[in-house]
TrEMBL record:
PANTHER family: RNA M5U METHYLTRANSFERASE, TRNA (URACIL(54)-C(5))-METHYLTRANSFERASE. Gene3D superfamilies: 2.40.50.1070, Nucleic acid-binding proteins, Vaccinia Virus protein VP39. CDD domains: AdoMet_MTases. Signal peptide: none annotated. This is 23S rRNA (Uracil(1939)-C(5))-methyltransferase RlmD. It is an enzyme of class 2 (transferase). It comes from Falsibacillus albus.
Length: 454
């Protein structure tokens, strides 16, 4: 689409939407212009910064009409950090924007009509919700610092607290930072590829209060290992596990291959509802435990199990959804691509004495077609794929297998909409969709869809 405006031009616009990175969207003759720090419902003067084929960028010069949902971002480092995108939007506004986003993509990409899309389920207190923190470590004027990468850069800014983190995580990071300082441990320098400590990771069991600390170093050894372990173990309440990971590569990836338990257990435990989970340093585990329960309960409700069903849980991770469903199903089969996660899933089944769940490592799009060929069908199929959505081969197998119900848990509404269209064309009908806010203050939104065979 040809740009109806030019660089450096000023225009008066109204803002309608928010993009996934929290920019407001204004339209000039249908041409979208993305403008940081503007909110839906606002009006203002913008200066065009850049124009491209399909869209442009602008800067907000003056606000004529302010949204009643605009608020002062409570975090003092909000602007520099970029971890959150919409702290300047009231929580009510955030939830409404997420619902609208899901509704828009279902119409635009999914071409779905008459689907009941509920209001996004939010949190009562949308702060301090994260159970896991991963902070990069660096040095400033010879002093060790740990915090976050400045927006669009690799500069580390020191941080005392992150207000979407569990306060315990902030406390743990500060304690570990002080101990590392005390022993003058050198931080990793990514330009020189020198120094030792690269990242501090901490995870807390929301229900149990158990804490794990992971120290990632470039060096094979953690300097002053014994002293540091002793001090961490002695000063953090609830500490159950101290883990060392070695990442000696020049890379942005946080973890290296080698992980070793230095002190305590290999795992910490947590509960979602009544199901207990063992979580190791490298396991994928949902970061917002309170909302995870809401999400899984919704999936369970949509599955509508009576106790007689065979269920397949594709993309099962460490078996979280599978074990949740197993309590109400005859049998659950979980499949997941990461073998270590499958080991965790089996261990978690045992831990909860759940005997009707089985797990297999492999690609969902390979394993499930094979199960189907061997005559193993599901009454209910649950998928919870990564952002890119389901593989086509898996969708085709679902259409052939014809489970009565499909429950789709999605972290990306755009690929959910795309996949729902495929299922609709294959004989299914989307009955309803429930968005759930797992990441307040950011633009991410999860959604659960109930899909039935017609
Ligand atoms: N249901 C789990 C995990 C969801 S995240 C939970 O709620 O905790 C998505 C999972 O899909 C990840 O564990 C990832 O490793 C896995 N995955 C990615 N591609 C896959 C594929 N092709 N086949 C099976 N699993 C896959």
């Amino acid at each position: 689409m040809h740009a109806p405006v030019q660089k450096n031009e000023y225009c008066d616009v109204g803002f309608e939407d928010l993009t996934h990175d929290g920019n407001g969207v204004a339209k000039v003759e249908g041409y979208p212009i993305f403008v940081p720090n503007s909110l839906p419902g606002e009006k203002g003067k913008i200066k065009i910064v850049k124009t491209g084929k399909g869209y442009g960028f602008g800067r907000l010069m003056e606000l004529y009409e302010e949204s009643r949902h605009r608020q002062e971002p409570p975090c003092p480092i909000y602007k520099e950090c970029g971890g959150c995108q919409i702290q300047h939007y009231s929580y009510e506004g955030q939830l409404a924007a997420k619902t609208k986003h899901v509704r828009d993509v279902m119409t635009r990409i999914g071409k779905l009509e008459n689907v009941k899309i509920h209001e996004t389920l939010g949190m009562t207190d949308p702060w301090h919700y994260r159970n896991k923190a991963q902070v990069p470590v660096g040095e400033r004027n010879g002093e060790l610092i740990a915090g976050f990468y400045q927006k669009r850069s690799h500069e580390i800014i020191d941080m005392d607290a992150c207000i979407i983190q569990d306060q315990k995580n902030d406390e743990v990071i500060q304690v570990v930072k002080d101990i590392l300082k005390k022993y003058s441990v050198r931080a990793y320098d990514e330009h020189k590829h020198s120094g030792a400590i690269r990242h501090i990771m901490t995870r807390i069991g929301h229900k149990t209060g158990e804490v794990m600390v992971v120290l990632v170093t470039r060096t094979k050894e953690l300097p002053h290992q014994n002293k540091i372990i002793e001090e961490i173990a002695g000063s953090i309440k609830g500490i159950k596990s101290i883990v060392h990971n070695v990442n000696s590569k020049r890379t942005n990836v946080i973890f290296g291959k080698d992980t070793k338990v230095l002190w305590g257990e290999e795992v910490i435990y947590d509960y979602i509802g009544d199901v207990k989970f063992a979580i190791s340093a490298r396991s994928f585990y949902q970061v917002n435990p309170a909302q995870t329960k809401v999400l899984y309960e919704q999936a369970l409700e949509y599955a509508g199990l009576s106790g007689e069903e065979t269920v397949i849980d594709a993309y099962c991770g460490i078996g979280t959804i599978s074990l949740f469903l197993a309590q109400k199903a005859k049998k659950v089969f979980g499949v997941e691509i990461v073998p270590e996660a499958i080991e965790d899933a089996k261990r978690n089944a045992e831990l909860n004495e759940i005997a009707n769940a089985e797990f297999e490592a492999g690609e969902a799009e390979v394993v499930i077609p094979r199960w189907y060929k061997e005559g193993n069908k599901a009454d209910v199929l649950v998928v919870d794929p990564p952002r890119k959505g389901c593989d086509e081969a898996l969708l085709q197998t679902i259409i052939d297998m014809k489970p009565k119900k499909v429950v789709y848990v999605s972290c990306n509404p755009a690929t959910l909409a795309r996949d729902l269209r495929v299922l609709e064309d294959g004989g299914y009908k989307t009955a309803e969709i429930q968005p759930v806010d797992m990441f307040p203050q950011t633009m991410h939104v999860e959604a659960v869809a109930k899909i039935e065979l017609v």
